[in-house]
Amino acid sequence: xxxxxxxxxxxxxxxxxxxxxxxxxxxxxxxxxxxxxxxxxxxxxxxxxxxxxxxxxxxxxxxxxxxxxxxxxxxxxxxxxxxxxxxxxxxxxxxxxxxxxxxxxxxxxxxxxxxxxxxxxxxxxxxxxxxxxxxxxxxxxxxxxxxxxxxxxxxxxxxxxxxxxxxxxxxxxxxxxxxxxxxxxxxxxxxxxxxxxxxxxxxxxxxxxxxxxxxxxxxxxxxxxxxxxxxxxxxxxxxxxxxxxxxxxxxxxxxxxxxxxxxxxxxxxxxxxxxxxxxxxxxxxxxxxxxxxxxxxxxxxxxxxxxxxxxxxxxxxxxxxxxxxxxxxxxxxxxxxxxxxxxxxxxxxxxxxxxxxxxxxxxxxxxxxxxxxxxxxxxxxxxxxxxxxxxxxxxxxxxxxxxxxxxxxxxxxxxxxxxxxxxxxxxxxxxxxxxxxxxxxxxxxxxxxxxxxxxxxxxxxxxxxxxxxxxxx
Length: 473
Description:
Layout: H1 7-21, H2 26-42, H3 44-55, H4 60-86, E1 89-91, E2 103-110, E3 113-117, H5 125-136, E4 140-144, H6 150-163, E5 169-171, H7 176-183, E6 189-193, H8 196-207, E7 213-216, E8 222-225, H9 231-243, E9 255-259, H10 263-277, H11 293-308, E10 312-316, E11 333-337, H12 344-347, E12 354-360, H13 363-371, E13 378-382, H14 386-395, E14 400-403, E15 424-425, H15 430-436, E16 438-445, H16 451-455, H17 466-470
Parallel strand pairs: 3-4, 3-6, 4-5, 6-7, 8-9, 8-13, 9-12, 11-12, 13-14
Antiparallel strand pairs: 1-2, 2-16, 7-15, 10-11
Organism: Aurantiacibacter luteus
Domain Aldehyde dehydrogenase: 5-442
Active site: 216, 250
C-alpha cells in the first residue's frame, strides 16, 4: 500500500529522470511498449484470475478479449504508428516570410509525467490501455488502480515493478484517500476514468495546479430503435452489450427508445436474446457478478424505486431461478417498462443489468428526448432507413456512435474515444490520443534577412524612422 505522503517523492523522481533523459529516441518508446505487451501477454492467466477473484465471478474468456487482447492489440497499434505520429508537421509561415525563407513546424513532444486513475470495471484495460499511448508519446507514468479490485491492483503493481524502473512507470495502491491525494499532484497531465460525479472532483483538484485532464466518464447512453429495425437482431446485440460484464460498462446501453407500436416486439426480442445467450444465470460461468454488495444493493433499490413509481418490472429469467436464495450477486436482465423521468433508473447512470424501455411516436420525439439530457458517451441506432439514421446522427451529440450494434466504436483503435460535456473531455485511441498526451510545440525559424526592418515593424516609427525611410519620406 502507498501512503499519500509518498506520492510527491514518486512524482519528483519521475520528473527528474524525464528531464535528465531528454531527448529520448523513438527506440526507447518502442522498448517500453514491447515491455508492456510482454507484461500483459506473459501474465494473462494471472490477471484473469485476479479479476475473477475481485468480482466473485468473471468469465476468463471475456476478460481475455476485454482486458488482455484489447491492451496488447492497442499497444501494437501504437508501436506501428509511432514514427508517423511523432513526425513534425510542416506548417505555412506567414506571407511574405515564407517566401523570404521563414520556416514553421509543429513538434509533438512528451509532456512529462502523466497520472492515470483507472476504475474497477475493466481494471487491466483501463489502466494499461491509456498507458500504452502515454508511453508512445514519450512520457513517464504513475498509475492509481481502483481499490474496489484489490487483487488486480496488487498484481498490476507487482508486474509493473518487475517490468519497469520506478522512474519510467510506477503504481500507487490504496483507498479513496490516496486517490484524492493522487489527483491533487502537479502532474503534466492527468487521465481519469470513472463516474461523472467523481470526475468533477478530480477536475477540481487538478485545476488547483492547472493540470490538463482527460476525463473518460459515462452517463446514459441511449439506444434509438428506428421504425425499420430488425428487432430480433437488435435484441440480440443489445443483450450482448447490456449483459456483458453484467452491464458494468461505461458504454453499456442505458435505456431504449422504441416506436410505440414496436414496444411489445422489442421486449420479446430482448427476452429471446437472453434465452439464447444466457439460458441460465446463477451458475453460468459466462455471466459476471455485480462487483460488490454496495453496487448490488444500489441496483436492487433502483428497481424497487421504478416499481414504486408505477413502472412495470420484467425480470428475464429463462430458467426460473431463485435469485433471492443466493448471495452471489447475480442479477437477471431487468426491463423497466413505462419509465418516468423521476425514476432513479432514468436520472442516474445504471451500470448494471437494468434496462428501461421508453416509447416514442416519431423520430424527432426520440431525438428531442436525447438532446434534453446530458450528452452521452455513446449513442446507438438500429434501423434500415438511411434518412432517419442521418437525421439521428446530424441532430444529436455524443462522444461516439455505433450504428447497427452497441459499444463497438471503442474497438476501432484508429478512431478517437472520449466523451463530451458530462460524459467526459479529451480522447485517447487514434492519432488524437497521441496528440492528447503530447505538447504541440510551435517552432518558427526566421531567415537571415532583416525581416523586422524590411517590414517596418521595428521602432522608431516617426518621420525619421524606418517606416518613413521605406516610404521615401
